[in-house]
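Support reply, case 0932

Customer input (verbatim):
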Amino acid sequence: MTSVSRILKVLADPPQAVRVFRHRATSWYRRTIQRDPFSVAIHHWFRDHGDETLRLDYPLDRESVVFDLGGYRGDFAADMAGKFGCRVHLFEPVKTFHDACAQRFDNDELVTCHHFGLMGTAGEFRISLEEDGSSIVAERSSAPGETVRVEAFADVVGSLGVATIDLLKINIEGGEYDVLRHLVDTGLIERVRFIQVQFHDFIPHAVRMRNALRTDLARTHSESWNYPFVWESWERRAPRGVIRQGATG
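Our regenerated output:
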């Protein structure tokens, strides 16, 4: 759909036109006048077409293993398997989303769907159900809920026999702090080549916890790109004395 067609479609529905105008005016005010960091970051993300470019730009191949934490409807898993022919383990604790993914990848040998989430420790939690905003840690009393199962990250990696996770994508609505802290504290972080994470700011002390984790990540990984509280990506540094392929001196 062209820009003109989109404009005409909106104008044909006056209430929708008002909503669009209000949304854009509010976004402009927060980004330009208030200089709200998230509003600036999300604007830059969409400007750079990050979902279609950065999120899919990794040096993977058929031997690679991807962990997709927060599989939702399976789009990211499908993109990874389709582009690289790599193995993808999709983790989705919400039954409706997991079942949809299981059906979607029923005949796809590259994608394995697991009906549980990954955290630092195993257990059962009440999760709010708000489509892609479903969260274990967010307190949304008015939202419907479901009891879901999570497993300890270290135990699952061991049971799957995975030596290296080539790409770990994390979008689990606040649970990322627990998972990354677990990986750092156990040293498992050194077995992850690339990390793609969406930090969320709706939980207490989110900025402080994100900063602490970024400091810890910087000991083993280098930041590749960063749109604060939208998406960011980290690459494991090569051990000292190892020259990266293609590097020049």
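We compared this against your earlier run and they match. Two observations from our side: Helices lie at 3-11, 14-33, 37-47, 75-84, 95-104, 153-160, 176-186, 206-217. Residues 127 and 146 are 5 Å apart (CA to CA). Please reopen the case if you see a mismatch on your end.
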